[in-house]
Amino acid sequence: MRRPVIGFVCDVTAVSGHPAHLVVEKYISAVAAGANAQAILLPGRLSDIDGNPLPQSVDYAEILELVDGIFLPGSPSNVAPALYGRPPEDQVLPADPNRDALSIGLIRAAFEAGVPMLGVCRGCQEMNVAFGGTLHPKLHEVSTGELDHRYQKDLPIPEQYAPVHQVALEPGGVFSGWVGGDTSWRVNSLHEQGVDRLAPGLVVEARAPDGVVEAFRHPGAKTFTTAIQWHPEWRFGEDNLSSAIFREFGAAARARMEIRRAR
Question: Which domains, and CATH codes, for the chain?
Answer without folding.
Answer: 5-261 (3.40.50.880)
